[in-house]
Amino acid sequence: HVQLVESGGGSVQAGGSLRLSCEASGLTFDDYAMAWFRQAPGKEREGVLCINWSGGYTRSADSVKGRFTISRDNAKNSVILQMNSLNSEDTALYYCVGSLYYWGQGTQVTVS
User: Fold this and answer.
1) Which of 17, 20, 24, 28 lies 20 to 30 Å from 111, alpha-carbon distance?
2) Selection from 66, 70, 86 nearest residue 78 by Cα
3) Which residues, at least 6 apart from 96, have a Cβ–Cβ distance to it below 8 Å?
4) CA–CA gap between residue 105 and residue 95 (Å, rounded)
5) How far, in Å, CA of 95 to CA of 36, rounded?
6) Pairwise CA distance, residues 1 & 44, whole Å
């Protein structure tokens, strides 16, 4: 069965950086566009960044432009979210998503 496992979350001070990783199994990884979503307490789930199957195209939410980047390594079935200049508004549960169909369990990011 398909599994998406996120890692790398944690607590960081405002202005700091975190790197989230997602490892996929049970699917032909390079058949899938991948994305990171997040959900903060009391707020709707938000798409943060997405990347196409080859890594040649990415799109980001306005709220993270210039601060977050997404990349993928199809040889390792992994997708990375690099987050810089973090602020309190970035506090959320971050999900790795495959083609809007497969979802990981999420990893918590807390910025104080």
Assistant:
1) 24
2) 70
3) 4, 5, 6, 20, 22, 24, 34, 35, 36, 79, 103, 104
4) 7
5) 6
6) 28
Amino acid identity at 101: Y
pLDDT in tens, 91-104: 999 999 999 899 99
Q: Which amino acid is at 104?
A: G
Supply the pLDDT for residue 101: 94
CA angle 54, 98, 69 (to 5 degrees): 60
| Cα–Cα dist 40/44, whole Å | 7
